[in-house]
Amino acid sequence: MTKLTVGNARIAYRTTGSGPAVVLVHGVGPGSVMWDEPAGRLAGRNTVILPDLAGSDPAGDDGSPLTVEALAAQVIAVIEDSGAASADVVGFSLGAPIAAAVAALRPDLVRRLVPVAGLAHGGDVYVRQLIALWLSLSGNPAGFGRLGTLTAYSRAFLNEVGDDGAEQFHGFMRPTDGRLRQLDLVRRLDIRELLPKIEAPTLVVGCTRDQTIPVENHRELFAGIAGSEYIELDTGHVAMMERPDEFEKLVRDFLDRP
Fold it and tell me: For this structure, is 56 an active site residue?
């Protein structure tokens, strides 16, 4: 694991595999571990770069409010430090607008862009109310984690894994200081002015059953990126867990284009 100081944060990143560089940008949660299974699938043909940004468990910073620009600067620093001339960048949830900001601010570093289950701004009242509920549970770790499970996965998927499987998911979301600041950023962010600056070929992935960031937000993000492509998966928010094979194929097919 490599560690870097970027602004007020001490961040880390891991690499695995070999081949063209792919950066996987995590969303709200413990960090890049959310990408471990997709990273393993991609590592056979790619150098997969997994940054842990401010607010995640392995990172540290001064505790100030997070911004998309600061987190994008951390991803940029990781790409530069890795030695990659450019990279494909895949961002999930909060990682989607961060990845889009990287592409807008440093088009020389981003070959292709894949925002997954993301949003362009935090103005959706549903999203704002959900985050307010989450933040109100900061003193109730069990309730905080249970809400995270219910919104992360579709009803169909939860019925597939059963009660025991669902109970295991609760630990993924814990009300740490960093996680609360990540959630706060979701309701404050607005990258709409950056979207016209994106030059990289872009595939926006939407999730039809998303109860964390409803699919209308994914479609709006797509509409703001000129020349982008759009595809929807019939999943909840965490598409790469619900449909791992389908997710890998669509990302691989897009990244492998000439």
Answer: no
